[in-house]
Design a protein that fits this description.
The longest helix has 18 residues. The strands form seven sheets. The protein has a seven-stranded parallel β-sheet with strand order 11-12-10-13-14-9-15, sandwiched between helices. A six-stranded parallel β-sheet has the order 16-26-25-17-24-23, sandwiched between helices. A five-stranded antiparallel β-sheet has the order 2-1-4-3-5. It is built from 22 helices and 31 strands. Strand 20 and strand 21 form a beta hairpin. It has 749 residues and is α/β, with parallel strands linked by helices. Helix content is 32%, strand content 22%. The relative contact order is 0.08. About 1% of the residues have low confidence. The protein folds into five domains: 99 residues, PriA, 3(prime) DNA-binding domain (GIY-YIG endonuclease, 3-Layer(aba) Sandwich); 72 residues, no CATH class; 179 residues, P-loop containing nucleotide triphosphate hydrolases (Rossmann fold, 3-Layer(aba) Sandwich), CATH 3.40.50.300; 186 residues, P-loop containing nucleotide triphosphate hydrolases (Rossmann fold); 91 residues, Alpha-Beta Plaits (2-Layer Sandwich), CATH 3.30.70.360. Bound molecules: adenosine-5'-diphosphate and zinc ion (ZN) (2 copies). The site of one zinc ion has 8 residues, from loops. This is Primosomal protein N.
Length: 749
């Protein structure tokens, strides 16, 4: 439609009231309004931000109700059609109002009209670009004994251009030299957007020569035409990141506008990777996107991606919603990681949206993992995804660690009791490492000192007053804390029920492990990394630095230490208590356990020193553990798939989970039962609607929760039902006092 002829703007607003809202375009703004533009509109008695999704010539809104659009944001270029289409798809697939998808996808500052004028003021920095054909002259003019100047010249030649900060990092007197070269006509000055340069300036590092399997993978990615979903399957250390970097280099070199999006699971992994990318591509504008950034920085990075200035965008799951007008390649590292699933608001899977975006744009998407999700593995097995495999560890001297089990039943028969959860063989293995000056990593996915406090005399347990959960003992902080609702209280001196002073900590968390290790190995340097020890900003980085610098002998940690970090001197990984994951009713528990253990195991023996992994367990026969001993992901995954197929579970069926919470369980259940009646009336026999059940943790923060699963062999049939069913649920009288939500493809049920 011609913008000049349109008089009506369809505007998405961030409100639960489903539809789009029509506003008339006043004469003063005629011709300036386009789809994808941020605007402000009157809504009730307020002015609110909105996003124009379409223009129209007429509206059903009666003339006396129709209001004028207030202002148009002209400092931010309109979002493009592809981005709006992504929003529409997500709204439809996850069954949310469009406005509740589109506006929250923007960084907070972009949703705040008061800050729009500030976003227009872009600050620039100076960069120098080498002129065509000037390299030879430049080299010929180099002074003979000035290594700094030579470094500078070589970086310019290698990358075509350098920004001022990177240049000064290479050679302190760079400025004078660069200006002289400009005068000689070899360089030209350029301006670049400043926010992009918030990366540590690093000198370019030459890439390693790829081995054959890596070459084949890069070749497959870069030669693909059109939509090409691929699984990059390789154990930790097999060189997947190198494959990403090479494929990225090729795609960026081929098209001077191309943008590459790389997703990573965790914020605490991005600094390392960011530095590695910056070192490899010192001339490429790199933007990072994650929720830990200051608002202003995040807005600037997002806009750099939106304007096409950022060529590489590195981010966590929220980056999948970034506007990337020239997107040419998507990389999803550790694609199996559950943090790709957003757990509130729009409950999207960033990995699934990545595949959708690649399809929409007709580009390759690479899903990398040592332990792919069974959904991805199945598609690869079916041939829907192309599989690229890296079989060996990349560094010549790195071999896969030996994995062994410590049978805790046997330990008991031998009457060798655990010492705060540590078995004699594990303690001995640690002692050996200490003697040799090597590092040990102990993995225990439970923070705090002990998961519960108990009275030996009357059996009292430290329950949370607001949740159906126990208060966790935090000894250094002298508190009992609920990990679900945040409730805190002082540690009681005696049993609140019977007055007995003999109350004891049951079970083990990382703090207790640390206390025991300090007693066992007084000479060792011990560090603990978990959400408690790293609460202050920067402490996690500092602790990891100490480990890398060899200032730590034993590192204890939760899943925070399991991922991404390349610990060169760790030769022993101890898994203290994997058994707590074995009794889950969740059908994905085995899959998640296998992935987690494979990840921690991957921390051992990365450079030359042979690594060993010791797993303490009472259930050595469990298939996940047996497969792990053989490093056999394929066998494990195929066996799991066969079981899932038999049971009709995902990926052989599609699920949606309706959850409801109310002050009382009965209220939540009543809503779900009414919703079930509605669904039964709408559903054919292709969709199966299960009974409502209380959630395994019924109460959190004084709200009680129940859930109901809906499943089908056909994604279409399920989607079809949901589209008709959700509006019906909205009208149910039983929804009074109930907070309810629908989750598509739930990860935990
Ligand atoms: P992954 O991402 O699979 O864990 P990385 O790409 O980080 O693996 O590689 C692991 C280590 O091996 C890194 O230190 C990396 O620099 C090195 N590496 C990767 N590919 C090669 C190669 N072809 N030759 C030598 N070293 C390599
Ligand atoms: Zn008691
Ligand atoms: Zn609680």
């Amino acid at each position: 439609m011609n913008a000049a002829g349109a008089v009506i703007a369809r505007v998405a607003l961030d409100t639960p009231a489903g539809e789009l809202f029509d506003y008339s375009i006043p004469a003063s703004l005629a011709g300036t309004v386009q789809p994808g533009q941020l605007v402000t509109v009157p809504f009730g008695r307020r002015l609110v931000p909105g996003l124009v999704t379409a223009l129209a010539e007429s509206t059903d809104v009666p003339a006396d109700k129709l209001r004028d659009l207030a202002t148009v944001c002209d400092s931010i270029p309109p979002l493009d059609r592809a981005w709006l289409a992504l929003g529409r798809f997500a709204a439809r697939y996850y069954h949310r109002p469009l406005g509740e998808v589109l506006l929250p996808a923007l960084p907070p500052m972009l949703r705040d009209p008061a800050s729009w004028p500030r976003l227009a003021q872009r600050s620039h920095v100076l960069a120098y670009r080498l002129q065509e054909g000037a390299a030879a002259d430049l080299l010929a003019a180099l002074p003979p004994r000035a290594p700094g100047v030579r470094r500078l010249a070589e970086a310019l030649i290698a990358h075509g251009s350098l920004d001022e900060r990177a240049a000064v990092a290479l050679y302190a007197q760079a400025r004078t030299r660069l200006e002289a070269w400009c005068t000689a006509g070899w360089l030209v000055r350029e301006q670049r957007a400043a926010a992009l340069l918030d990366v540590r300036a690093a000198s370019a590092t030459p890439p390693p020569a790829l081995h054959a399997e890596q070459c084949a993978a890069v070749e497959a990615i870069t030669s693909a035409t059109g939509f090409a979903p691929m699984l990059l399957h390789g154990v930790t250390g097999s060189g997947k990141t190198e494959v990403y970097l090479h494929a990225m280099a090729e795609v960026l070199a081929r098209d001077p506008a191309a943008q590459v999006l790389m997703l990573v699971p965790e914020i605490n992994l991005t600094p390392q990777l960011e530095a590695r990318i910056a070192a490899r591509f010192p001339h490429m504008p790199l933007a990072t996107l994650h929720s830990g950034l200051a608002e202003q920085v995040r807005a600037m990075q997002w806009l750099a991606a939106h304007r096409g200035e950022a060529r590489i965008v590195l981010g966590t799951r929220l980056a999948i919603l970034a506007s990337l007008p020239n997107l040419a390649l998507i990389l999803v590292d550790e694609e199996h990681d559950t943090s790709y699933k957003q757990q509130e608001g729009l409950r999207y899977s960033a990995r699934d949206l990545a595949v959708w975006r690649a399809k929409q744009r007709g580009i390759p998407v690479v899903l990398g993992s040592a332990t792919p999700s069974l959904e991805t593995w199945w598609r690869a097995r079916q041939g829907a995804y192309c599989t690229l495999t890296l079989r060996e560890r990349a560094q010549a001297d790195a071999v896969l660690p030996r994995i062994g089990l410590i049978d805790l039943n046997l330990e008991r028969q031998r009457q060798r009791p655990l010492q705060d959860g540590l078995s004699v063989p594990l303690i001995e293995a640690m002692r050996q490492r200490l003697a040799r000056g090597e590092q040990t990593l102990l993995f225990l996915n439970r923070r705090g000192y002990a998961p519960v406090l108990s009275c030996a005399s009357c059996g009292w347990l430290s329950g949370c007053p607001r949740c159906s959960a126990y208060l966790v003992l935090h000894k250094p902080e002298r508190r009992l804390r609920c990990h679900h609702c945040g409730w805190e209280e002082r540690i009681p001196h005696h049993c609140p029920d019977c007055g007995n002073v003999d109350i004891a900590a049951l079970g083990h968390g990382t703090q207790r492990l640390e206390e025991r290790l300090v007693a066992l190995f007084p000479e060792a340097r011990i560090a603990r990394i978990d959400a408690d020890s790293t609460r202050r900003k920067g402490t996690a980085e500092a602790l990891f630095e100490e480990v890398h610098a060899g200032q730590v002998d034993i590192l204890i940690g939760t899943q925070m230490i399991a991922k991404g970090h390349d610990f060169q001197r760790v030769t022993l990984v101890g898994v203290v208590n994997p058994d707590q994951a074995m009794f889950s009713h969740d059908f994905r528990a085995a899959e998640h356990l296998f992935a987690a253990l494979m990840q921690v195991a991957g921390r051992a023996g990365r450079a030359g020193l042979p690594g060993e992994v010791l797993i303490q367990t009472r259930y050595g026969e469990a298939s996940a553990l047996q497969a792990l001993l053989r490093h056999d992901y394929d066998g494990f995954a195929d066996a799991q798939l066969a079981e899932r197929q038999q049971a009709g579970l995902p990926p052989f069926s599609y699920q949606a989970l309706l959850t409801a919470e109310h002050r009382e369980l009965a209220g939540a259940q009543a809503f779900l039962r009414a919703a079930r009646e509605e669904a039964l009336a709408l559903a054919g026999d292709t969709v199966h609607i299960l009974d409502p059940v209380p959630m395994s943790m019924v109460r959190i923060a004084n709200r009680e929760r129940a859930q109901m699963l809906v499943e089908s062999d056909s994604r279409m049939a399920l989607q079809h039902l949901l589209a008709a069913w959700m509006p019906a649920c909205d009208r149910l009288p039983q929804r009074q006092g109930v907070r309810w939500q629908l989750e598509i493809d739930p990860l935990r049920i």
